[in-house]
Design brief:
The protein is mostly beta strands and 133 residues long. The protein is built from one helix and twelve strands; from the N terminus they run ββββββββββββα. The longest helix has 7 residues. InterPro entries: QdtA_cupin_dom (IPR008894), RmlC-like_jellyroll (IPR014710), RmlC_Cupin_sf (IPR011051).
């Protein structure tokens, strides 16, 4: 999990409202897919998988939520995202679960590739058995 990191997003402050800009000099990969989660019911979680190759940059556009990360050694790291001017870079081989969504939270995910089911590991025991990527 040493490559997982919070990355500040350049922000242009203005009395009329701030603008945060995510360009390829902010994240270390080319963008192939963008999606967002919203209206997540209280007590629900998202994620629950790892990727073999995909990199993700996750931003709390509105509200807050926790990202629970685990590696193949079952080391756990919990990161709360609640600032739209900071994003979390998640590299391949890291299990992720998103939980504790506040009311009105919006989670933006910027991904390094299009959806490919074969890139997912959806069973945690299989993930632990797979070992380091």
């Amino acid at each position: 999990m040493e490559d997982v990191q919070i990355i500040p997003i350049p922000k242009i402050e203005d009395y009329r409202g701030n603008i945060a800009v995510v360009e390829n000099d902010v994240i270390p990969f080319s963008v192939k897919r963008v999606y967002y989660l919203f209206d997540v019911p209280s007590g629900s979680y998202r994620g629950g998988h790892a990727h073999k190759e995909l990199k993700q940059f996750i931003i709390a556009i509105s509200g807050s939520f926790d990202v629970v990360l685990k590696d193949y050694k079952n080391t756990v790291k919990r990161i709360t995202l609640n600032n739209p001017a900071k994003g979390l870079l998640i590299t391949p081989g890291v299990w992720r679960e998103l939980e504790n969504f506040s009311s009105g939270a919006v989670c933006l995910v910027i991904a390094s590739d299009v959806y490919r089911e074969e890139d997912y590991i959806r069973d945690f025991n299989e993930f632990l058995e797979t070992g380091k990527f």
